[in-house]
Design goal:
four-stranded mixed β-sheet; 293 residues; 6 strands; single chain; 16% strand; alpha+beta; two-stranded antiparallel sheet; 7 helices
């Protein structure tokens, strides 16, 4: 069993020469896997690799990754000159001078005005630097996973306890169901007899049939059966090593629907009270399920 929460936090600081790289990862509840990465320009080249790591570690939730560099840049920059292009510029300038009889020396500053002559490039990182950065991301992910596992363990215990409470209430409903049906039939029979008092032409078999039909409308047998099935399904699902949050959410929605039906059918005070209590407990389960991956 490995129930995973969707909330967690991890932080790793990597020291590289005169620079420090801080990796922070926060995870929050989300219906799907939503990845947000904030990187300094110097590290944009590893964004895809970071996303690949995140997808391998998490199945669901909003994953916020923030990487910050302090101190010297870990990426060295260099200026490149397009000599071939500059030769062409100079050649054309000299041709223009001869053609139009222009005199004087060209200032060096003119070079900065010529398009595409100078480019600033970032030197590619050495492989060990890349590995160190990505390893820090993985280590921060592991911290997040540990926190999610610990919280998931508490969620598992709480949900199993609450599901036992739900089962106890459903058993009470089932126990009282037979008594309620019989009392309901008696009340209907008394009312029918009062309405038909003095009318001897009414078929007793027809009266009995109508009583049975009316009683069945208030019968909650099917709802109770489905609730027991949902409880069993919930317990089996929560123990799977998988992203089961959405599945558990669906099961609790179905349980909520059955309890609403029971409440609408109930004409018994006790059944009504228990169905309200049951509904409240399922609402609490549903809230907790929202935190499960």
């Amino acid at each position: 069993m490995m129930t995973m929460s969707m909330t967690g936090y991890g932080r790793k600081v990597l020291h590289m020469d005169d620079a420090s790289v801080t990796v922070e990862i926060r995870t929050l509840n989300h219906r799907f896997l939503d990845i947000s990465i904030k990187l300094p320009a110097a590290l944009l080249f590893i964004e895809d690799k970071i996303k690949k790591i995140i997808r391998s570690k998490f199945s669901r939730g909003r994953i916020e990754v923030a990487i910050e560099i302090t101190g010297s840049s870990i990426v060295q920059k260099k200026v490149e000159i397009d000599w071939y292009l500059l030769d062409q510029y100079m050649e054309k300038i000299n041709i223009a001078k001869d053609r139009y009889g222009l005199a004087g020396e060209l200032p060096v500053s003119i070079l900065t005005t010529l398009p595409d002559i100078f480019t600033v490039e970032e030197e590619k990182q050495q492989s060990e630097t890349n590995d160190a950065l990505l390893t820090s991301v993985e280590q921060a992910c592991e911290q997040v996973l540990d926190m999610r596992k610990n919280e998931g363990s508490f969620l598992f215990q709480d949900l199993m306890k609450r599901m036992s409470t739900v089962e106890d209430i459903v058993i009470l409903l089932q126990t009282r169901r037979t008594l309620v049906i019989e009392e309901y039939r008696k009340r209907i029979k008394v009312r029918v007899e009062e309405q038909l008092e003095g009318h001897t032409l009414i078929d007793p078999a027809r009266i009995h049939q109508e009583i049975v039909l009316l009683a069945e409308r208030g019968d909650i047998t099917e709802e109770i059966t489905r609730l027991f099935s949902h409880i069993e399904h919930f317990r089996a699902s929560i123990q799977k090593n998988d992203a089961i949050g959405r599945k558990l959410d669906f099961i609790t929605q179905e349980m909520h629907r059955e309890v609403n039906t029971i409440g609408s059918k109930s004409t018994d005070v006790k059944l009504s009270e228990w169905s309200v209590t049951l509904k409240g407990e399922i609402e609490k389960i549903k809230e907790q399920v929202q935190n499960i991956e």
